[in-house]
Amino acid sequence: MIVRLSVGPGTLESTMTEDLSPAERYAASRKRAAEQATALASFREMYDFGLDPFQIEACQALEAGKGVLVAAPTGSGKTIVGEFAVHLALLQGKKCFYTTPIKALSNQKYADLCRRYGADKVGLLTGDNSVNSEAPVVVMTTEVLRNMLYAGSQTLLGLGHVVMDEVHYLSDRFRGAVWEEVIIHLPASVTLVSLSATVSNAEEFGDWLDTVRGDTEVIVSEHRPVPLFQHVLAGRRMYDLFEEGEGHKKAVNPDLVRLARMEAARPSYQDRRRGRSMREADRERERRQRSRVWTPGRPEVIERLDAEGLLPAITFIFSRAGCEAAVQQCLYAGLRLNDEEAREQVRALVEERTAHIVPEDLHVLGYYEWLEGLERGIAAHHAGMLPTFKEVVEELFVRGLVKAVFATETLALGINMPARSVVLEKLVKWNGEQHADITPGEYTQLTGRAGRRGIDVEGHAVVLWQRAMSPEHLAGLAGTRTYPLRSSFRPSYNMAVNLVEQFGRHRSRELLETSFAQFQADRSVVGISRQVQRNEEGLAGYQASMTCHLGDFEEYARLRRELKDRETELARQGAHQRRAEAATSLEKLRPGDVIHVPTGKYAGLALVLDPGLPAGRSNGHRGFDHQDGPRPLVLTAERQVKRLASMDFPVPVEPLDRMRIPKTFNPRSPQSRRDLASALRSKAGHIPPERARKKRSQAADDREIARLRTALRAHPCHGCDDREDHARWAERYHRLLRDTSQLERRIEGRTNTIARTFDRIVALLTELDYLRGNEVTEHGRRLARLYGELDLLASECLREGVWEGLAPAELAACVSALVYEARLSDDAMAPKVPSGKAKAALGEMVRIWGRLDGLEEDFRISQTEGVGQREPDLGFAWAAYMWASGKGLDEVLREAEMPAGDFVRWCKQVIDVLGQISAAAPREDSTVAKAARKAVDQLLRGVVAYSSVG
Q: By three-state DSSP, how is residue 128 classified?
């Protein structure tokens, strides 16, 4: 593996030919002629701009037959390398597959390649589209390629190159495993082109690619073609985040630091509510400060950016509702960013793109409010929008007809929507479990959209001022431009049967051990392994130092250790027994008992006011739920009322006498305490405390201790003059041996983790008769065709005939439970489901899941490790049933309480799984395959049927 770091255009400077000798000029001429004959030369002529050094290096490596990993910032032009792989494959008469993580990117790349090479040479394969699939260049989602590899598709014949765009997606905990499956299983003859955002462990990832794919060149570029400037917008002023200066180390703007310090010192509204008074001068200073420091409103931000020539801008708001609200706020504020000519262009394009949507659906989708925003140059962009609407926003933004977009972070995932400026409202987002600070990697990904290559001289990232903001923390986010790539690879049931079918169990296990997940786990134990080696060297030295000429000192040391352990154990048992006796004696105490507290801060004479038993009330004092046993409340002879703990009673306590506690006694009254304490001293002050009798030690009568002591005295080493010196070395040897064993257990826990998980999955599948040794049964072959999170549950439902006899709409409802997952867990109300056969089938699915869940527990397969079957979610069953039954969009969305974009996305996922089920269902005497095909037809209508491609 070769690693090259490209720092910018200045790294490849041409040499002035006039300074060369004739021989050198001739050599340079020969070199230029050779370069003109390369595929790269013809490729460069296709572009009206020069390539950057990192692009040239990557293309040259590809032409030399090597694989490449290109890690470069967002917007730097990594895809040029991918397009060169397409060019190279076409020149060589081979195929090239261009994979992307999301359908929107696939559609975008398909359109780009069609414009360059013609629609006859480019195909598209996504979950719901198939266009010209046998073309020499096919754009597809990564899952499609994975499925083709397992199925042994004929489309793979003649494949020369595979481009994996956004390969850093393999960190995604839900879908990342697919990238590793593809990389591992691609034929060795295929050249892999991996395009990644800037990651801090590109070399480690390159090492792994080198291991599994052969010669791979890693090219890392830190250079942004359009420089990015960082700002903080506070009130009316735009602060630069960094101070102007030379060198790589940038200092935080002192004005910003001073502002943060002043804001931190200013009393908050809550402080004033608590009654903190302010002098008139302080109030005046605060009024002046507040007049120039506040968090600007959304319309105000857009107006400010427009005034400074910083539009178009993308404002990232980590909430769908927030994005929609931002558009409405700008409309209410009367914001207009388009002139009349631009408005007409927007309306014409929108009407053309939405002509297929029936008028009644347009009203349901909020079309007219959306159009008004677009005409003014303002739009939202998030996953809850109809795909058609999102694509229109993207196209208008690229054309410059929408100038302000309010988007969730999903827009940062590769979609080609560069802007001049990016605005971040907050540096905190909801991660599905809690509000957490965004990471440096997320900050880099979001702000990477700022600066359009070939259009803008510079890009701008603007963070809105928030109270308690730390400029240093923000500078850390902006300055840390890399993040590590971490594998999320885990074996699945479908993967297991497909691997065993193709390679057998032993070879499958070996393949899984080549995953990046295992590669990283193995590397993480390198340091521990070195420590183990050092420990073993130390053990050898200690062993030599404790050698005794009289006999085996290791054996003698073991006897000493066993004796010590036994004595310690008996002492522990004795202490436990004494504590138990003390607790029992405390439980017998009653109010009015006079006791002697044996130890502690309040040792001495005391009167029990409340025995402190773990329940209810006693004598007016609330009892406590004590885990350590009773905690009596006492009055000491020194007039203090205290609740004691079990540690104050290391030995059992017996009442010395009894006293009556007056009903008028008030523990809060000093007079009451003084009177009762005086009576206590008079009553029992003369009684001496009973001395605890020392019991005979258990060790004195223990046979094992007697045996060990006899063996010690009889051992030859017992009479050695250097016995204690040897013993010290033996103790060190034992401690180091114990530490080494712990390190070895840690290594054991990290090595072969993927293979061990695979073994447990195979064992469960064997129990269910999906596998018999290296043979995949008929049930296993069915499972091999089912891809998804609940693959085994779907297979078991087919096996047990749960879906037999269901109508297409009822089957759609049942299948929805395999794909749907609510964005927020809501246990307050059971979801509405269709009645009749569908309800019974859904109940049966949950029962089967419960059985599988129990089996997974038996075989130690844990969902927390990313393996196993989650409970089916019935939350989309009613919506899927209604839509497949022909109900209108308005009624379905109202019943589902779901945004149109989410509804379409879930419907398409149900359609995808229905297609798998129709292929996997038994052919003979089964109604499922036919019902699944009909359900696809009934779901694929209206807004769900629309596709921007093909």
A: coil
| Cβ neighbours for 522, distance < 8 A, ≥ 6 positions apart | 750, 751
Rounded Cα distance, 50 and 918, in Å = 51
Sign of the alpha-carbon dihedral angle for 552, 553, 557, 560: positive
Secondary structure (DSSP) of 184-234: HHS-TTSEEEEEE--BTTHHHHHHHHHHHHSSEEEEEE---SS-EEEEEEE
Three-class SS state of 125: strand
Query: pTM for this structure?
Result: 0.70
Look at residue 894 in the predicted model and tell me its pLDDT.
87
Nearest 5°: phi and psi at 770?
Answer: -90, -25
Burial 348-370 (b: 16+ CB within 10 A, else e): ebbeebbeebeeebeebbebeeb
Percentage helix, strand, coil for the chain under 3-state DSSP, each rounded to 5: 50, 15, 35
pLDDT score, position 163: 93
Q: What is the largest CA-CA distance in the chain?
A: 121
Gap between the Cα atoms of 641 and 287, Å rounded: 53
Q: What is the secondary structure of 881-921 as a DSSP string?
A: HHHHTT--HHHHHHHHT--HHHHHHHHHHHHHHHHHHHHHS
- Name the pairing type of β-strands 95-100 and 159-164: parallel
Note the residue count of the chain. Answer: 950
pLDDT at residue 848 in the model: 92
Concatenated DSSP letters for 372-430? HHHHTTEEEE-TTS-HHHHHHHHHHHHHTS--EEEE-GGGGSS----BSEEEES-SEEE
How far apart CA 513 and CA 757 sit, in angstroms, is 11
Q: What gap in Å lies between CA 395 and CA 763, rounded to an integer?
A: 51
Please state, in angstroms and rounded to a whole number, the distance separating the CA atoms of residues 649 and 579.
8
Read off the pLDDT band of 752 (50, 70, 90).
low
Instruction: Tell me how far apart the alpha carbons of residues 390 and 948 are, in angstroms, rounded to a whole number.
Output: 11
Residue of 842, 808, 815 lying closest to 914 (CA atoms): 815
**What is the C-alpha separation between 895 and 883, in angstroms, rounded?**
11
The Cα 82–Cα 63 span in angstroms is 12
Residue 32: helix, strand or coil by DSSP?
helix
Q: 776: helix, coil or strand?
A: strand
- If you average pLDDT over residues 465-471, what whole number do you get? 80
- The gap between the terminal CA atoms of the chain, to the nearest Å, is 41
- The answer to whether the CB of 832 falls within 8 A of the CB of 878 is yes
Tell me if 96 sits within 8 A of 136, measured CB to CB. Answer: yes
- Pairing state of beta strands 122-126 and 237-240? unpaired
**The token pair that represents 939 in the structure block:** 């779901």
Cα–Cα distance between 935 and 812 in angstroms, integer?
6
Q: Which of 652, 657, 656 is nearest to 692 (CA)?
A: 652
Query: Do residues 170 and 146 lie in contact, with contact meaning Cβ atoms separated by under 8 Å?
Result: no
Tokens of 281: 């001068």
Tell me: cis bond preceding 359? Omega within 30 of 0 counts: no
Look at residue 418 and tell me whether its pLDDT is greater than 90: no
Whole-number Å distance between alpha carbons of 110 and 138: 8
Q: How confident is the model at residue 479 (pLDDT cuts 50, 70, 90)?
A: confident
